What we know:
Elements: E1 2-8, H1 13-22, H2 34-53, E2 60-69, E3 73-80, H3 87-90, H4 105-112, E4 115-119, E5 124-130
Helix pairs in contact: 1-2, 2-4
Amino acid sequence: MKICIHELTKSNLSVSIERVLETIDYLKSNLCSDTLRFNIKLALWEIFTNYIVHGNEHSCREIVVLKLENDREIEITIISEGSDFDSEHLIGDLCPSVEQIGGRGLYIVQQICDMFLVEQRGKIAKMVFKKD
């Protein structure tokens, strides 16, 4: 399934995330744990926020979200048609310092996804979540 989000900004961030969540059939089932629901929502929040905050225009012209779902997992690919973010600078293997202001979002996404991949300087972000 493909979802297009035009002009992603801070003011429509929540609505945009809810649009994506509504398309994931497994989240509507009784089989889905609250933890998995929360992790997917948090990961989307962090990726979308990076396009807004660390992108070049403090908004993102267009985001395309591709969602694939099978018996075992949910795969979400986010493609930015405008903003990108310096993924090499923002993603690391080490937990950010407690004294550091910000910079934890993508680290958290790495920890809660079963697979997380960023390509083309952040223009493409791919997340995989195993079903409960």
